[in-house]
Amino acid sequence: MGVYWAFLRLMTTMTDTQKTESVSTPRSSQAPLPDVKTLVSWLGDMMLIREFEVRAMQAYQNKLAGGFLHVYNGQEAVAVGCIAALRPDDPVITAYRDHGHALARGLDPKVGMAELFGRIGGCAKGKGGSMHFFDAEHHMYGGHGIVGAQGPLGAGLAFATKYRDEVMDGGTNKHVTLCFMGDGAINQGAVHEAMNLASVLSLPVIFIVENNQYAMGTAIERCTAAGGQICDRAAGYDMESAVIDGMDIIEVYRDMKPLVDRCRDTSKPIFVDMRCYRFKGHSVSDPRKYRTHEEEAKWELEDPIDRMAAYLDAAGHLSRDEFKAMGKEVCQNIREVVEWAKNSPEPGLEELYHDVYVDPWGPYTGTSIPSFLQKRSSDQERGHGA
Ligand SMILES: Cc1ncc(C[n+]2csc(CCOP(=O)(O)OP(=O)(O)O)c2C)c(N)n1
Ligand SMILES: [Mg+2]
User: Fold this and answer.
1) Is the distance from the beta carbon of residue 214 to the nearest atom of ligand 1 less than 6 Å?
2) What gap in Å lies between CA 156 and CA 101, rounded to an integer?
């Protein structure tokens, strides 16, 4: 959070093309803001996600975390602002850059960090890692590593809630599903099938493209036809769409809330082009040679945490000293999170085949059961298994 006042400068230096505005949500229909306490809590949530990611990267370099690691630095306003527009029981699903969404949804950061470290205390008992954060209690349905895979799943979640709400609960309840994806996912066939089905079946789902302008090292204009106007694709599915400035949590919330409310009321899908930028590489091992330092520096001036802190300060809601104190508290919190995760044991070998199929052996009929599991398997066959 180096450039605290940067956004004020940015306001005077941004060109018209860099500014985004909602296509289908006129300013007059923006939602009013909640109370100050809630606004400050959004800032705290974004700071928590940022610090979680900073410590996750350190842990990765120290070999405490393995596999892949895709951090969310720069995009915090998207997850926190969108999820603030939901009810706690609305489903959320996303891709592999998923830590921010899970934390914004209420996942205990200790449990998230333990998942990164491959420990039993993790949300998937350490077996999923960074790309597979899952928290059914908070209606966070992953964490998906296949680009675009969450598109059909998001439509399916919306179908499930609609069926339950309308058929089983007699229309007394209505849910909205948020299906986040990267800009790289919009060229996946499965996403288009899901959008078509969502429109045809009138499903209450909002497809939110976190348009950070790169799919791994490939810039959107190099791999996506008409990449500057991806909302045009929504028109092909007779779907309402909006462009939102994803670097400003106030804008995210004020634009998203009416969309969420409308989706809940009408049970019609919506498509959002959420303009944002990831501050770090695609994954931690990405040297970022496909973009310039100047470009990165320009976008860092839009840091969503600094912008929110400056907004609260200018409005007289949070002084700079109070902001610093919040930062210290978050750092201390995440230090404890890392210690907790380190102290969580690794899962035992017997966990290897658990939670894969409902029946632990699934369709397995072969003879190559690992020796350490042979006793357990024969116990199960005799009906003594867990
Ligand atoms: C179907 C499929 N193809 C390719 C990959 C390899 N891959 C992993 S991430 C990625 C880029 C996705 O970029 P984007 O959707 O913009 O998400 P971001 O990383 O920017 O959040 C690719 C091509 C994959 N995981 N799945
Ligand atoms: Mg991207």
Assistant:
1) yes
2) 19
> Is pLDDT of 36 > 50?
yes
Question: 69 in ligand 1 pocket by Cβ < 6 Å?
Answer: no
Distance 215 CA to ligand 1 centre (A): 6
Q: What is the pLDDT at residue 14?
A: 34
Task: Supply 203's token pair.
Answer: 């499903």
CA 133/CA 127 separation, integer angstroms: 10
Q: Which two tokens stand for residue 210?
A: 């976190």
Q: Is 100 in the pocket of ligand 1 (CB under 6 A)?
A: no
One DSSP character per residue, 90-129 reads: S-EE--S--HHHHHHHT--HHHHHHHHTT-TTSTTTTSS-
Rounded to whole angstroms, the Cα distance separating 240 from 294 reads: 35
Ion ligand 2 residue ranges (Cβ < 5 Å): 182-183, 212
Domains along the sequence of the chain with CATH: 2-345 (3.40.50.970), 348-386 (no CATH)
Probe target for ligand 1 pocket from 70, 179, 216, 220, with the most ligand atoms within 8 Å of CB: 216
For the stretch 163-190, pLDDT in tens is: 999 999 998 899 999 999 999 999 999 9
